[in-house]
Amino acid sequence: MSRLDDTTSLRQMLDHAAEALAFARGRTRDDLSADRTLQLVVTRLLEVLGEAARRVSEAARSAHPEVPWREIVGLRNRLIHGYDYIDFDLLWDIIEHDLPRLVAQLQAILDE
Question: Are the C-beta atoms of residues 9 and 27 closer than 8 Å to each other?
Fold first, then answer.
Protein backbone atom coordinates (compact mmCIF):
# COMPACT_ATOMS: atom_id res chain seq x y z
CA MET A 1 0.00 0.00 0.00
CA SER A 2 1.42 3.41 -0.86
CA ARG A 3 1.99 6.22 1.61
CA LEU A 4 -0.91 8.10 0.02
CA ASP A 5 -3.20 5.15 0.67
CA ASP A 6 -2.04 4.93 4.29
CA THR A 7 -2.63 8.63 4.72
CA THR A 8 -6.12 8.30 3.30
CA SER A 9 -6.94 5.38 5.60
CA LEU A 10 -5.47 7.14 8.64
CA ARG A 11 -7.48 10.27 7.82
CA GLN A 12 -10.64 8.16 7.49
CA MET A 13 -9.91 6.57 10.85
CA LEU A 14 -9.45 9.97 12.45
CA ASP A 15 -12.55 11.44 10.85
CA HIS A 16 -14.80 8.54 11.87
CA ALA A 17 -13.45 8.40 15.42
CA ALA A 18 -13.92 12.15 15.83
CA GLU A 19 -17.42 11.96 14.39
CA ALA A 20 -18.38 9.16 16.81
CA LEU A 21 -17.13 11.33 19.67
CA ALA A 22 -19.13 14.28 18.36
CA PHE A 23 -22.34 12.23 18.20
CA ALA A 24 -21.77 10.98 21.76
CA ARG A 25 -20.84 14.39 23.19
CA GLY A 26 -23.29 15.44 25.87
CA ARG A 27 -24.92 12.02 25.81
CA THR A 28 -24.89 9.23 28.39
CA ARG A 29 -24.80 5.45 28.34
CA ASP A 30 -28.54 5.51 29.04
CA ASP A 31 -29.04 7.67 25.94
CA LEU A 32 -27.31 4.99 23.90
CA SER A 33 -29.75 2.38 25.19
CA ALA A 34 -32.76 4.56 24.48
CA ASP A 35 -31.79 6.05 21.12
CA ARG A 36 -31.78 3.61 18.21
CA THR A 37 -30.43 6.26 15.87
CA LEU A 38 -27.46 6.89 18.15
CA GLN A 39 -26.84 3.13 18.31
CA LEU A 40 -26.84 2.84 14.54
CA VAL A 41 -24.68 5.90 13.99
CA VAL A 42 -21.89 5.04 16.42
CA THR A 43 -21.92 1.39 15.40
CA ARG A 44 -21.52 2.29 11.73
CA LEU A 45 -18.81 4.87 12.45
CA LEU A 46 -16.82 2.28 14.42
CA GLU A 47 -17.29 -0.29 11.65
CA VAL A 48 -15.83 2.10 9.09
CA LEU A 49 -13.05 3.07 11.49
CA GLY A 50 -12.11 -0.60 11.74
CA GLU A 51 -12.27 -1.13 8.00
CA ALA A 52 -9.98 1.85 7.42
CA ALA A 53 -7.58 0.44 10.05
CA ARG A 54 -7.57 -2.88 8.24
CA ARG A 55 -6.42 -1.10 5.09
CA VAL A 56 -3.39 0.53 6.73
CA SER A 57 -0.23 -1.20 5.54
CA GLU A 58 1.72 -3.52 7.80
CA ALA A 59 4.70 -1.16 7.53
CA ALA A 60 2.66 1.77 8.83
CA ARG A 61 1.16 -0.36 11.59
CA SER A 62 4.61 -1.53 12.65
CA ALA A 63 5.85 2.05 12.70
CA HIS A 64 3.05 2.97 15.13
CA PRO A 65 2.65 0.20 17.69
CA GLU A 66 0.97 2.65 20.06
CA VAL A 67 -2.22 2.28 18.02
CA PRO A 68 -4.19 -0.86 18.96
CA TRP A 69 -4.59 -2.01 15.35
CA ARG A 70 -5.64 -5.58 16.14
CA GLU A 71 -8.30 -4.46 18.60
CA ILE A 72 -9.71 -1.86 16.21
CA VAL A 73 -9.99 -4.35 13.36
CA GLY A 74 -11.34 -6.97 15.78
CA LEU A 75 -14.07 -4.58 16.89
CA ARG A 76 -15.00 -4.00 13.27
CA ASN A 77 -15.25 -7.74 12.69
CA ARG A 78 -17.35 -8.21 15.81
CA LEU A 79 -19.73 -5.40 14.84
CA ILE A 80 -20.10 -6.62 11.25
CA HIS A 81 -20.43 -10.33 11.96
CA GLY A 82 -22.04 -10.13 15.38
CA TYR A 83 -24.59 -7.52 14.39
CA ASP A 84 -27.34 -9.45 16.18
CA TYR A 85 -25.69 -8.83 19.55
CA ILE A 86 -23.78 -5.66 20.25
CA ASP A 87 -22.55 -5.01 23.76
CA PHE A 88 -23.45 -1.35 24.18
CA ASP A 89 -21.68 -1.19 27.53
CA LEU A 90 -18.45 -2.08 25.74
CA LEU A 91 -19.21 0.29 22.87
CA TRP A 92 -19.82 3.16 25.29
CA ASP A 93 -16.61 2.36 27.16
CA ILE A 94 -14.71 2.51 23.86
CA ILE A 95 -16.30 5.86 23.02
CA GLU A 96 -15.55 7.35 26.43
CA HIS A 97 -12.08 5.96 27.09
CA ASP A 98 -10.45 4.70 23.91
CA LEU A 99 -11.56 7.04 21.14
CA PRO A 100 -10.17 10.27 22.66
CA ARG A 101 -6.73 8.65 22.95
CA LEU A 102 -7.01 7.18 19.44
CA VAL A 103 -7.93 10.56 17.97
CA ALA A 104 -4.82 12.08 19.56
CA GLN A 105 -2.63 9.22 18.30
CA LEU A 106 -3.97 9.45 14.76
CA GLN A 107 -3.61 13.22 14.69
CA ALA A 108 0.01 12.89 15.81
CA ILE A 109 0.71 10.32 13.08
CA LEU A 110 -0.87 12.51 10.41
CA ASP A 111 1.04 15.56 11.66
CA GLU A 112 4.39 13.77 11.17
Answer: no
Q: Tell me the C-alpha to C-alpha distance, in Å, between residue 18 and each of 2, 30, 56, 63.
A: 24, 21, 18, 22
Neighbours of 14 (CB within 10 A): 20
Closest CA relative to residue 56, chosen from 111, 7, 94:
7
| CA 23, chain centre distance (Å) | 13
Tens digit of each residue's pLDDT, the chain (112 residues): 455 699 999 999 999 999 999 999 999 999 999 999 999 999 999 999 999 999 999 999 999 999 999 999 999 999 999 888 899 999 999 999 999 999 999 999 999 9
Alpha helix (H) residue ranges in the chain: 3-24, 29-34, 36-55, 58-63, 69-81, 88-93, 99-111
Closest C-alpha to 79, from 54, 103, 52, 44: 44
